[in-house]
User: Which sequence fits this backbone?
């Protein structure tokens, strides 16, 4: 990833490199589940689906950059929608797994995620000023605030939880700055920020502390003899 950024590769080669990075993130998921035996199975499967569809979206962009038919853009948007849908599934799964009970606060947070997903859907449909490339920003922001922050600062704390928070913050920063400067349809240095977000997901999946993701806050207390 650092080599791609430093070399300044653009165009189809850059898009292919992004797809390869998503594949690296996808390869970290079985490590978290099979090697570290993370109990957050649904969360990791949701993240896997998100990375998979983003990789397909990047690969779909290659023929567009080479002058392919504009209809391919519709397929690319469909992959993006599927990716953000998988991210929402992962977020809801983590909310339900990481709390001792399905309280009113949990359902309110889930409602917040659903509303963010609805706003993203409106953006993909072209009814907001965000456009296709900025459509996922409401989902990313909601996931960071409602899931990643509590996961990173709550108990049990772990490197993997912190890495997922870093991934979310980097993604929001990258896409948010693109929207702010009106460069959502261009390849800028802000794309490099989102690439580091995927690298943070790789760290989260491969670090041994992934075994603690998905544990209920009182899991350690229940297993500790009094």
Assistant:
């Amino acid at each position: 990833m650092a080599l791609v950024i430093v070399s300044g590769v653009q165009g189809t080669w850059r898009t292919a490199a992004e797809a390869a990075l998503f594949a690296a993130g996808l390869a970290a998921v079985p490590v978290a589940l099979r090697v570290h035996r993370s109990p957050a199975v649904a969360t990791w499967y949701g993240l896997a689906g998100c990375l998979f569809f983003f990789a397909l979206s990047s690969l779909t962009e290659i023929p567009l950059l080479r002058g392919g038919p504009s209809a391919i853009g519709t397929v690319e948007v469909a992959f993006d929608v599927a990716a953000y849908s998988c991210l929402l599934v992962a977020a809801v799964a983590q909310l339900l797994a990481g709390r001792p009970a399905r309280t009113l606060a949990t359902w309110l947070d889930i409602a917040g995620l659903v509303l963010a997903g609805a706003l993203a859907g409106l953006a993909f449909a072209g009814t907001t000023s965000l456009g296709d490339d900025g459509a996922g920003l409401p989902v990313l922001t909601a996931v960071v605030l409602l899931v990643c922050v509590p996961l990173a600062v709550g108990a049990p704390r772990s490197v993997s939880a912190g890495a997922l928070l870093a991934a979310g913050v980097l993604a929001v920063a990258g896409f948010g700055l693109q929207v702010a400067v009106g460069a959502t349809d261009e390849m800028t240095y802000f794309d490099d920020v989102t690439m580091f977000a995927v690298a943070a997901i790789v760290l989260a999946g491969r670090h041994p502390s992934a075994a603690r993701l998905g544990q209920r806050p009182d899991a350690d207390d229940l297993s500790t003899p009094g």
